[in-house]
Amino acid sequence: MQPLLTYTLRQGDRALVLAQRLLEAITHAPEIEEDMALSNLALDLIGQSRALYTYAGELEGPVEGAPRDEDHYAYWREQHEFLNPLLVEQPNGDFAQIIVRQFLHDAYALPFWQAMTSSSDATLAALAAKSVKETAYHLRHARSWVVRLGDGTDESHARAQAAVEQLWRFTGELFEHDAVEDELTAAGIAADQAALQAAWRSTVTDALAEATLEVPEGGVMQSGGRVGRHSESFSRLIGELQVLARAHPGATW
Amino acid sequence: MSSKADWPLWEVFVRAKRGVSHVHAGTVHAPDAELALQNARDLFTRRSEGVSLWVVKSNDITASDPDDSEALFEPAADKTFRHPTDFELPDEVANM
User: Fold this and answer.
1) Closest-CA residue in chain B for A40?
2) In this complex, do B43 and A94 lie within 8 Å of one another by their Cβ atoms?
3) N or C: which end of chain A has fewer CB within 10 A?
């Protein structure tokens, strides 16, 4: 697979899989207002994934005469073909886990899109200009909640700290780089992973301090999602995502 | 996790565009003012309805008593001389 296609799918899958997890949470948020907030985040992420998949279809070109559209990438690929980082597929758990996962993700996604606004790839740069505004709001919302949960009651603090410790091991993968990123970064297309990590670290350290939460130190990082190796719960997520399209191919409504 | 009883109600005011007033749009629940603004943004401006938002705790609003409405409002009914009907509005004034 050409590097730019892999890079585009990694980002599209990141957005789609996180959106799917957020949609699972709807009706489980503490208030209907927060259900609305989470679904708004999900809608923005689905919009980003659709644009990225459309671009992936242009990059890949027709396969056996059939052009690939966004539905192909969402509904007709197998699990191991999804290239999202493990962080975004982690199960929802409680509200603290949903929020901490979102925050750890958004603290990466904002500097990612900011960097991509100056990508030498015109399509990705144009998409970044739109996504950076959406993501700035996502980060603000998630960060607000991290501070409130961490610096809230004893119970909310304990749950938020547990969520940070549980999800921390999946944050290293966000900044991994292989030949795909290295080649594209050298070409001015991809964001520099090391620079993203520095920005992420600063955002996370600052917010966790305000939230009176401890930043985990050391520990083993888990990865594999970016190359198609996913955690156990991923098969159920993908099954739910794809079941309707596969039961009724080509259905419209 | 907070129960519903912990989240106060906030009145939301939306300004549709520059130059017009904020108009009451409805209410949201939120644990504090910052999140009330975010919830109001998600609920009342999702279809580009506004360029500015105010939120205020419902409890902080002092409202007139419906039982007082005769005394408060009916005395104005027969004082037509208070209406500026004899003035012509210039065409340039779009929002009045």
Assistant:
1) B42
2) no
3) C
Where in the sequence is the domain holding A135, given as residue range(s)? Answer: 3-247
Q: What is the pLDDT of residue A96?
A: 97
Please answer whether residues A167 and A101 qualify as being in contact, where contact means their C-beta atoms are separated by less than 8 angstroms.
yes
State in words which class domain B4-61 has.
alpha beta
| Lowest pLDDT segment from A110-114, A115-119, B57-61, B74-78 | B74-78
Conformational region of residue A252, where left means phi above 0, alpha means psi within -120 to 50, and beta covers everything else:
beta
List of chain A residues whose C-beta atoms are within 8 Å of the C-beta of residue B4:
31
> What is the total count of domains within chain A?
1
* CATH code where residue A181 lies: 1.20.1260.10
Whether residue A225 lies inside any domain: the answer is yes
Supply the DSSP string of A88-145, one letter for each residue: GGS---SHHHHHHHHHHHHHHHHHHHHHHTT-SSHHHHHHHHHHHHHHHHHHHHHHHH
Q: Which residue has the higher pLDDT, A180 or B81?
A: A180
Per the domain annotation, does A253 fall within a domain? no
